[in-house]
Amino acid sequence: MSETLTKEEKSSQDAKRISAFTLIELVVVVAIISLLVFASIPTFREFINTSRLRQASYDVISALRTARASAVSNRIEYMTLFYTSMQNRNNIPNFAYAYPIWSAVLVYQVEEGPIGGWKRLPENIFLDFNYFYGLETGGVVGADPDGLPYPNNDEVVQGDSMPIVRFNKKGGVEGSGFPCIQLRDNSTQDTAAIRVLRSTGRIYLYSFRGKLVQE
């Protein structure tokens, strides 16, 4: 009887050892997973920021290409309008003295008016007018003098003081200069620059996060 009890005790002790060893393994695995998760957080944040800036770049490029394609196909001038709403309601903002609220782009035609409505850029991504080059800012011919209403928003965009890119019926850009549109991530200060060849109207992403890409 005592021999049987001894065997049972040994069996119970072995089971406890196995159970304890399994628990240690579980703790180690949880610790490793936790370390991996914490280590991946900065990379994940960088991925989100990069995706947001790239999406905004493609939104602007899409609006420019839509305006150019419409001008060529309809044989009439189309334009892309750029707007950043500031806390001081200044339509040609200085980012050093005012805080941007949102930015948006719009395809516009004088006779038809807004085409498809304003496209709002992702959160924290703004059109940095301080680094816009070669764009006209003299006004939108034929725009409603009371401004262009932004959808689902109380603000009114003044059509007489925003940067524009005008495409002629051949697809080229009207005016002088070399249009360059810069976007800025207000949380990371990363930038992306979009350029338009004036003679042909070719639109491409020139730089992204400080690196030349020319896509």
Task: Tell me what you see in this structure.
The chain has 215 residues and is α+β, with helices and mostly antiparallel strands. It has a single domain, classed as minor pseudopilin epsh fold (3-Layer(bab) Sandwich), CATH 3.55.40.10. Helix content is 34%, strand content 27%. It has one helix at 2-74, and strands at residues 78-86, 100-109, 113-120, 125-127, 148-149, 156-157, 164-167, 180-185, 191-196, 203-208, 211-212. It has a five-stranded antiparallel beta sheet, with helices on one face. The model has no long low-confidence stretch (mean pLDDT 76).
Q: How would you concisely characterize the structure shown here?
A:
The protein is α+β, with helices and mostly antiparallel strands and 215 residues long. Helices cover 34% and strands 27% of the residues.
Which descriptors apply to this entry?
215 residues; alpha+beta; minor pseudopilin epsh fold; 5-stranded antiparallel β-sheet; 4-stranded antiparallel β-sheet
Main sheet characteristics: 5 strands, antiparallel
Looking at how many chains there are and whether they match, the oligomeric state comes to single chain
| Unreliable residue runs | none
> What is the CATH fold-level name?
minor pseudopilin epsh fold
Helix content: 25-40%
Tell me, rounded to a whole number, the average pLDDT.
76
Q: How are the strands of the biggest sheet laid out side by side?
A: 4-8-9-10-11
**CATH second-level architecture:** 3-Layer(bab) Sandwich
Query: How many structural units, i.e. domains?
Result: 1
What's the level 1 CATH class? Answer: Alpha Beta
Structural class: alpha+beta
**How many individual β-strands?**
11
CATH superfamily: minor pseudopilin epsh domain
Radius of gyration: 29 Å
Count of alpha and pi helical runs? 1
List the secondary-structure elements in sequence, H or E.
Answer: HEEEEEEEEEEE
Distance between the termini: 85 Å
